[in-house]
Amino acid sequence: MTLTAEELTLRQGRIGASMVGAIVGVNPFAGPIDAWLQLTGRAVKEQTDDGKLRTDWGGQMEGMLASWYEHETGLELAPCTTLIHPRHDWAIATPDRTANAPLLVECKHVGERVAWHWMDGPPDYVAAQCVWQMLVTRALGMDVSRVDVVADVGGAPPEIFPVQYDADLENNMFEAVERFWTDHVVADVPPAVDGSASYQAWLRRQFPNSSGTMREAPEADQWATQYAEASEAIKAANDAKELAANNLRFAIGEDDGVRGPWGQATNRTSARGTRSLRVKLNGDTRVRRVGRATVEDIAI
Question: Which domain does 272 fall in, by range?
Answer without folding.
Answer: 221-281
